[in-house]
Write a structure and sequence with these properties.
Strands 1, 2, 3, 4, 5, 6, 7, 8, 9 and 10 form a ten-stranded mixed beta sheet that branches. About 30% of the residues lie in helices and about 30% in strands. It has about 280 residues and is α+β, with helices and mostly antiparallel strands. Helix 1 packs parallel to helix 2 and helix 2 crosses helix 3. It has one domain: Ribosomal Protein S5, domain 2. The structure holds 4-diphosphocytidyl-2-C-methyl-D-erythritol and adenosine-5'-triphosphate.
Length: about 280
């Protein structure tokens, strides 16, 4: 049977503002997504019997709840495809860290199985399907760094200079839904432009809320700020800081307190998934 190994990259939110709220409670955002050349790997093997299985994946995520399995089932339902798949997920992206790991895994499965099953859906259709699984899935489907509005699904592709980032996971799991419902979250940011972001405007509105509730994240931000300008990604708990070279980043990590996890990665405009699919 045909098998395909595909990357599921992590993302950073270079800034994240909330400008309002929809009637259904979902928040309206402004954010800038960039991909990292760091992520999970997903192996997809086609099954003729129509079953979807996940023989390997995140230990604490049950198979039926895994976003990869949910993505495969959704694609099957929507297209009436009678093929199935085995999905091996090699997790590297810390979970609940604001790096979008689950969403990226889901997008990789949608794109990969759409190809292997010959479903013929285009990116618009896959992004619409993906949005039903999570607000962050569409950007991973489209695979281009983007300025995002709406709940994160109104995407305008942007070109960004390639930069290195130090990323730190303080080994704290921050539940996204809980953070979005925090009473002290700023929800009335005035809209900004990409030019204003490049001029230095923009912050992450979750940062003060997370720092207050999770002292370990506050410690990590304070530690990284001693070397470079540190900021939270998504709703945390990971933080990042731009550095001028991979070497500079690794030097910072030499001093990383052993209780945290850190890595250096390049921010890329075209997602590693998109780059890989061009060659398939
Ligand atoms: C924080 C970000 O990662 C920034 O990129 C995303 O906005 C979150 O995206 P995600 O993890 O895919 O989130 P989802 O799984 O869609 O939503 C989790 C929960 O967060 C809240 N949520 C999410 C996105 C949004 N724009 N407004 C919200 O209020 C909702 O309560 C939702 O039930
Ligand atoms: N394949 C998967 N990988 C990671 N998490 C998954 C997966 N499938 C389901 N989940 C669930 O989704 C939750 C959020 O995981 P994820 O790593 O996407 O968080 P996150 O990086 O904070 O996301 P975001 O930045 O989109 O808020 C996990 O705690 C887990 O219960």
């Amino acid at each position: 049977m045909q098998a395909l190994i595909l990357p599921a990259p992590a993302k950073l939110n270079l800034f994240l503002h909330i400008t309002g709220r929809r009637a259904d409670g979902y928040h309206l955002l402004q954010t800038l997504f960039v991909f990292l050349d760091f992520g999970d790997d997903i192996t997809l093997s086609v099954r003729a019997d129509g079953e979807i299985h996940r023989p390997a994946g995140a230990a604490d995520v049950p198979e039926h709840a895994d976003l990869t399995v949910r993505a495969a089932r959704l694609l099957q339902q929507e297209t009436g495809c009678r093929l199935g798949a085995d999905i091996h997920v090699q997790k590297r992206i810390p979970m609940g860290g604001g790096l979008g790991g689950g969403s990226s895994d889901a997008a990789t499965v949608l794109k990969g199985l759409n190809h292997l099953w010959n479903c013929g859906l285009d990116d618009d259709a896959l992004a619409t399907l993906g949005l039903r699984l999570g607000a962050d899935v569409p950007v991973f489907v489209r695979g281009h760094a983007a300025w995002a509005e709406g709940v994160g699904e109104q995407l305008t592709p942007v070109e960004l200079p390639t930069k290195w980032y130090v990323v730190i996971h303080p080994r704290v799991h921050v539940p996204t839904a809980e953070l979005f419902s925090a009473p002290d979250l700023t929800r009335d940011c005035l809209p900004i432009t990409l030019a204003a972001f490049h001029d230095g405007q923009g912050s992450n509105v979750f940062q003060p809320v997370v720092e207050k509730r999770y002292p370990e994240v506050a410690n990590a931000i304070s530690w990284l700020s001693g070397f470079a300008e540190a900021r939270l990604t998504g709703s945390g708990s990971c933080l990042f800081a731009p550095v001028s070279s991979k070497g500079k980043g690794n030097k910072i990590l030499q001093n990383l307190p052993p209780e945290w996890f850190g890595f250096v990665a390049q921010g890329v405009t075209m997602s590693p998934l998109q780059q890989r699919l061009v060659t398939v």
